[in-house]
Design a protein that fits this description.
It contains 22 helices and 20 strands. By secondary structure, it is an alpha/beta fold. The strands form 4 sheets. Strands 8, 9, 10, 11, 12, 13, 14, 15, 18, 19 and 20 form an 11-stranded mixed sheet that branches.
Length: 661
């Protein structure tokens, strides 16, 4: 027989309900088999009874609640719903509203608001719909769960209890079978975790968000039942992820550019193709130079040790280095816009960059590699050109969203074990200046406008204390830098006076001492390039490779239009619609040879725009009418993306065939 709750102490007159324990255990194990082993273990805590019911636990050194846990939970939940902790999307900045297809939907929704005489400023601040998430941090004895799940209009519930002992104790205090059956009858799905590491907790929650639909993050409920370090940390880290998760990772027009650039770079330039495999350890430290404002105070330290380190410049930091007499070994780029070429060309007219090796994404503008001595290029993760053209082992993770991520990931790939970051501020401590005085942001009128428009609405901990200001892009970069540091067993010192980056070691620049001898830079670059496969122009692509993709694209768009048509006929709200779309989009990329990735970013981000509007409209009839209009406009946008994708494939096929002779 499975072990039950420990017997009550001598002063107790009640005993556990063994039938309830077994029924609850079976209900949990049937749904969450991974919990079976933990739920079968014996208990060390003793229940405390009042009036025949368990109200608290004797943990040995103390009681769990120090009072009647049932009354405490009721008060806690009542107080919570008066002012619940919820995560809201504060705007549409992350939904690619600059993309023409997204802008089309945004214009449509504005027109709908005008049609129904809805002023934008009158939209509800908070969304109101049944479909978001509820995150419950802590089960304890579970007295709060029923009223919490009933009160929150959530369709997906994530419950975490870092102490398996407490989960076992809850078997005797709440009827898990009835709770789960009742909620599931409402269409609620459950996820239960006993992870005790905050990163694992957040990773599991993020997985739930992705599986249930990222657009439904808007309005997420977060409830913490009792104070515990793991739960506090998970709550705080989750708040950082929510806004960045809502940010769409690519959009249709951008993917067209990236497919065009990747194809052109593979056809026109020789390059070394970077991969993510482990390389021999290098003894030289690596300096990564960003153009954050703090580089102006530390550039002399960089100059002091320059000859003894492998030096990377990140994006606009190239000019910062050159203006201070520092020639980088490697220069990192990831953006695909032509303005990147224009800036680099202007720099090349002012300084000699011909001895620098480019490290960049294959999606950079195809004129960029010719400016450098040689190129190490890579397939950046998730973008269409990578999914369609590359084999998975070549996909480079951790290189997004900024050039700082490229630099750190590259240094790790090269085998560097000691890495120092300068000017990688991931924001700024001053509102007056967000980049180095020597960066291009202060050299041309266009770049001055870019600098002036930069807004840093986030407040994050500072690297050397205090606080720094950031935005979603730099904050995303900071989080990815943290994950890279956790994945690779290397020492990363942050000498930048900007945002604090977890897993790095804050270090005052003046305290940096490099003990390795001066480097033969030419030999070092040759050795590093030799770690990777060399590609000659046209070697990676072959005749017919792109033309064969048109059939897959036509099949994909036929299927997605059929899915949208079914939604138009059958779905009555965004929850039903997105559940249908999410199921369709979950198909393996191989089913359509990866062609769906060209439009996938926009297919996912456009509904975020629709939900943001519709879920903030009070009148149910107006809400319904605008939702129906959204679906029809969404369909027309996919027709536009279909035609654009097929035209691109035709164009690229002609160019590849012409280059092949």
């Amino acid at each position: 027989m499975s072990p039950d709750l420990a017997e009550p102490t001598a002063s107790d007159s009640s005993s556990p309900d063994h039938d309830l324990i077994e029924r609850s255990r079976e209900a949990l194990v049937s749904r969450f088999p991974n919990l079976a082993e933990e739920l079968a273990k014996p208990l060390t805590a003793n229940p405390i009874f009042e009036d025949g019911a368990v109200v608290d636990l004797d943990l040995g050194s103390r009681r769990l609640y120090q009072e009647n846990g049932r009354s405490l939970a009721a008060e806690q939940v009542a107080k919570y719903f008066k002012n619940p902790l919820r995560f809201f999307v504060t705007g549409l900045v992350g939904a690619n509203i600059g993309s023409p297809v997204s802008a089309r939907m945004l214009s449509f929704l504005y027109a709908q608001c005008d049609k129904f005489k809805i002023r934008i400023e009158d939209l509800e601040v908070k969304p109101n719909y049944e479909g978001t998430y509820l995150v419950v941090l802590g089960i304890g004895l579970g007295f709060h769960l029923e009223s919490l799940i009933t009160g929150a209009v959530a369709r997906s519930v994530y419950i975490v209890e870092p102490s398996p002992e407490l989960l076992r104790c809850s078997l005797a205090t709440i009827d898990w079978a009835t709770l789960l059956d009742t909620a599931e009858a409402r269409g609620v799905t459950f996820h239960i975790s006993i992870a005790s590491d905050p990163d694992l907790i957040v990773s599991d929650i993020v997985g739930m968000f992705r599986g249930g639909g990222v657009p439904f993050i808007d309005g997420t409920y977060v409830f913490m039942h009792y104070p515990a370090w793991a739960l506090f940390e998970a709550r705080n880290r989750l708040s950082e992820y929510v806004e960045t998760m809502f940010v769409s990772r690519g959009f249709f027009e951008d993917e067209l550019i990236m497919m065009t650039n990747a194809t052109a770079n593979l056809m026109r330039h020789p390059c070394y193709l970077m991969d993510g495999l482990l390389k021999p350890v290098r003894s030289e430290p690596a300096f990564l130079i960003g153009s954050g404002p703090s580089i102006d105070e530390t550039i002399e330290v960089v100059k002091r040790w320059r000859d003894r380190v492998i030096l990377f410049s990140c994006g606009t930091a190239l000019r910062v280095c050159l203006r201070n007499g520092i020639v980088p070994d490697f220069h990192c780029e990831i953006e695909n816009g032509e303005w990147i070429y224009d800036n680099l060309y202007a720099t090349s007219q002012e300084y000699d960059i011909s001895d620098i090796t480019l490290v960049g994404s294959l999606t950079v503008n195809a004129k960029v590699p010719a400016l450098f001595k040689r190129s190490i290029l890579f397939f950046r993760s998730s973008v269409s050109s990578t999914v369609i053209l590359a084999e998975r082992p070549l996909e480079m993770y951790g290189v997004e969203p900024t050039v700082a991520n490229v630099a750190l990931r590259s240094a790790m790939s090269f085998g560097c074990q000691e890495i120092y970051m300068f000017g990688i501020d991931c924001g700024a401590k001053s509102k007056e200046r967000k980049h180095s005085k020597d960066a291009l942001y202060f050299q041309t009128e266009d770049m001055k406008v870019r600098e002036k428009r930069l807004k840093f609405p986030y407040t994050v901990p500072g690297n050397f204390g205090g606080w720094a200001q950031s935005d979603w892009l730099f904050n995303s970069s900071r989080l990815v830098l943290t994950r890279l540091c956790r994945l690779y067993n290397v020492k990363v010192y942050n000498c930048s006076d900007g945002a604090y980056i977890d897993e790095t070691i804050p270090k005052v620049a003046e305290g940096v001492v490099v003990k390795t001898p001066p480097i033969d830079r030419a030999a070092m670059q040759e050795t590093i390039c030799g770690l990777y496969r060399r590609l000659e122009p046209g070697e990676f692509l072959n005749d017919g490779q792109l033309s064969a993709l048109s059939e897959h694209a036509e099949r994909y768009f036929a299927d997605v239009l059929e899915t949208i048509d079914a939604a138009i006929e059958q779905d009555r709200d965004f929850v039903a619609f997105w559940s249908r779309m999410a199921e369709f989009m979950a198909k393996p990329t191989a089913e359509y040879a990866g062609l769906q990735t060209i439009s996938d970013g926009s297919s996912r981000s456009i509904p975020k725009i629709g939900m943001f509007f519709v879920h903030r409209i009070r009148d149910p009839e107006v809400r319904r009418a605008i939702f129906e209009g959204f679906l029809k406009e969404y369909r027309e946008i996919h027709v536009v993306m279909r035609d654009g994708t097929l035209a691109l494939l035709d164009q690229l096929t002609v160019e590849v065939e012409a280059a092949a002779g």
